[in-house]
Amino acid sequence: MPDIPWRIQFELALIPVYGPERAKRSASVLLPAILRDFRKMLTKNAPGVLVSEDYNTEDRLTVIHVTGERLVKGRSERLILRSLRVGSAEITLHQIIEGKAGEQI
Predict the structure, then answer these.
(1) Which 3-state string (H, E, C) describes 33-72?
(2) Which structural domain, as residue segments, surrounds residue 28?
(3) Does 1 reside within a domain?
């Protein structure tokens, strides 16, 4: 699914588990909460350290695996999402494909 934005891929990966309507609602709640928590984790770690975390859905039907790192250059800090997986579905992060640092979150 490389031509589909990664946030839409996230929602599509939830459809086999929840069905279309519930997947859409779940994605709109899950993704912001996961990214908010993961940002906190990244800021607590040293720059350049690859951080991974697994998030279970409330009903325990699927696991969301997130990997990222914090990059610091001078006074500038970037929080980078390196990989995202929903169950066994790997989400394609376009910026990584384009050879950039990853998806900034």
Answers:
(1) HHHHHHHHHHHHCCCCCCEEEEEECCCCCCEEEEEEEEEE
(2) 6-104
(3) no
Q: Determine the average pLDDT of the residues in 54-77.
A: 92
pTM, entire model: 0.83
Task: Choose between 37 and 95: higher pLDDT.
Answer: 37
Say how far apart CA 77 and CA 43 lie, in whole Å: 9
CB atoms within 10 A of CB 62: 19
- Pick the more confident residue, 37 or 100: 37
68 forms beta bridges with: 51, 81
Contact between 22 and 29 under an 8 Å Cβ cutoff? The reply is no
d(CA 97, CA 13): 19
43 is a domain residue: yes
How far is residue 69 CA from its own chain's centroid? 12
